[in-house]
Automatic annotation (TrEMBL):
Cofactors: Mg(2+)
Protein name: 6-carboxyhexanoate--CoA ligase
Keyword Chaperone in record: no
InterPro entries, alphabetized: BioW (IPR005499)
Assigned protein family: Belongs to the BioW family.
The organism's place on the tree of life at top rank: Bacteria
HAMAP family xref list: BioW
Annotated source species: Bacillus halotolerans
Cited function: Catalyzes the transformation of pimelate into pimeloyl-CoA with concomitant hydrolysis of ATP to AMP.
Amino acid sequence: MQEETFYSVRMRASMNGSHEDGGKHISGGERLITFDNMKRTVNALLEKGLSHSRGKPDFMQIQFEEVHEPVKKIHPLPMKTNEVESPEEGQSLARFLLERAGVPRKVVEKAYQQISEWSGIRGAVVFDIHTGKRVDQTHDKGVRVSRMDWPDLNFEQWAQRYGVPSNPRIKEALALASKVNEHPATVAELCWSDDPDYITGYVAGKKWGYQRITAMKEYGTEEGCRIFFADGSVNVNTYINDLEKQPILIEWEEDDDSKCDRKK
């Protein structure tokens, strides 16, 4: 029996109106917390939305709701950092890692041909590895993975153990990737940020873990990417519902991550 009650807290911020009215997406955030952490979490999300490098928002929404489903605890993916000299080298490595994760080369190339068309999507695109087509019907909204978190103390212990910077960006990205790749239908994930000041991205998969790549685009570029390469034989609506609704907490233990790289 679960003793604690958890709450899903979500923030989204945009410029020139709300997202539904065509506003430019500025920032977003997801947390899964207990009630006694509510005020601190809301304040942190407020600060995140107001201080993003993509611009000053004129619309922001912060909401929370009680989670009634049982919270599942999973381990974080093992992490490795791949140092590259240029975005071209980074993207070449990303293609290679996607293939190693089980995405056919022709499907990787089909996805890359369409990435520029998806740059304005706020969430993720779901791409079927069998048909080489986008299969979600979320249009410009995309799939928003929600209801996941990594308790701060446990994350800080993990970061100290592996010499990783203890910053929220890494925590949020690795928590999301761990939830997405925990799902049996996920084959791999490809991501880089729409933040113009952040050029690191990653490829994540069950076999090779969370592979950070230090350059995936040029500085100053606001076009980001998030693609979930999935086994399309699974019902896509069930898949999306699991990513959006299943509550997940990341819990690292001392004997986890035997493959984790110590490089920052």
